[in-house]
Amino acid sequence: MRKSKDFQKLVVKMREKGFYTPKEKTIIDWAAYTTNQINDFIDTLKFIGSEVDKVHKSKEHNSVGRPPTDPGELAKAILFVETFTIPEKKAEGWLIIIGPHLGIKNRIDDRVLGKAYQNLEVISILEKVFENNKTNDGKMCGDGTGLEGSRKENYESTKKKTNYLTSIVDSREIVQQFDLGNKQECQAMHGLIKKIKTELKKDITKITKNKITLDAGFVDRKLTQLIEDAGITPYIFPKKNNTITSKGYPAWSRMCKKIIDNVQAWLAEYHIRSHAESFHSSLKRVFGVVTKRRNTTVYTQVLCRIIHNNRRKINYHNLKTTN
Fold it and tell me: How far is it, in rounded angstroms, from Cα 108 to Cα 70?
């Protein structure tokens, strides 16, 4: 009981301004950043064409009548318009010009493009592109945010948003997993950790030391245990009324004891979490509001935007290491 009271006093101090001595901010490699910005359009076209072709082969149409638009071409078209947030009517014109550079052989009507956001085969292609284009440095963090569907909604004081995005990113802001819907963020995180665990099991050599940092909104002993069981070290900022007792989940007590043993070292690891907030801010700033309305179409739109986020971040960090 005494340890829990000492722990609660320490948690209050952890929240005080100036208690934690922050690390130096990551320095931006401006040469790599500028090169990445200049080459972004060219990289986008190459990426879309090659990555979709890796996971999809067009099929011959042997039946009578006009052949349906190939799902691979639709996936390429959606990835292109979401990169530059082009409205569907304008997109039809853009695709006439840009289509050949993406490997799109046929003209895509704006109505066909709009319906493609609900096409399950198209979504499957996009999900494979997402899975094929992410790397993980093992320093993960998670957070949730509302995605506004209009400028008005963006400036409203209410926290209720049409769509809620819960994400896990690494320290380079490359998205590892995400959940989109109306789930409470802690509940959504349970599912995301299970997916991460499955990924790590597939390739145990991928990462040797994994960690994840979460704010007090994710205080949940069961979640802490789930994280540790997945081979990941949890860093979840406690609430001031939390105790160190495990209540059947020993991972929670182990995490709390690490805070007591060396609070500054623990906080140094915890503050990786700022990258999750930075990613959400960047996603909204670069791509703007969500313009789709149905659940499936919103998912497709956000999926494409996350694919492009990962592509840009990976390109930047590759350039950074070669400079």
Answer: 10
